[in-house]
């Protein structure tokens, strides 16, 4: 969780394994594309910074955050990935839709992690407003995409 004391993009580079022989799948939601695009840019640049080759980073899009679970599941069936990252953004509105989407995605990704041989990294921003999402997708709290890339590299070496 991002707080004033924790920047999502801050980490010790010495503790990150070399990703040059790894292959990553990224599933990104098109909904709130300003935010998810920034998350994707952060994830890809961080993977490449740690050695991942551009041709070993495969990006697929899905319409919205709820579909991230299906997209990640399809990538786990491919079998050629060392880790998969999901990236989405759900911003609270005036209806309970936010709660249903967040719970569904969280449950679905947790279930995939329990049953799959490939780690699926949870990169779903769940914020109260657009400013909070911007703050966590390259703003004052860093970029959740960076954090997800680091988690993917570490879990691929688990």
Write a concise synopsis of the structure shown.
This protein has five helices and six strands; from the N terminus they run E-H-E-H-E-H-E-H-E-E-H.
Structural class: alpha/beta
Query: What are the secondary-structure elements, in order, as H or E?
Result: EHEHEHEHEEH
Backbone shape: globular
Per DSSP E runs of 2 or more residues, the count of β-strands stands at 6
Strand residues, percent: 15-25%
Low-confidence stretches: none
Helices, by number, come to 5
Mean pLDDT: 94
N- and C-termini, Cα separation: 22 Å
Computed CA radius of gyration, to the nearest angstrom: 15 Å
Name the helicity range. 40-55%
Q: Order of strands across the widest beta sheet?
A: 2-1-3-4
Structure description:
- The chain is an alpha/beta fold.
- Helix content is 42%, strand content 22%.
- It contains 5 helices and 6 strands.
- It has helices at 33-49, 68-78, 97-115, 130-135, 144-156, and strands at residues 24-29, 57-62, 83-91, 120-127, 137-139, 142-143.
- The strands form 2 sheets. The protein has a 4-stranded parallel beta sheet, sandwiched between helices. It has a two-stranded antiparallel ribbon with strand order 5-6.
- α1 (33-49) links the parallel β1 (24-29) and β2.
- α1 (33-49) packs across α5.
- It is globular.
- The two termini are 22 Å apart.
- The mean pLDDT is 94.
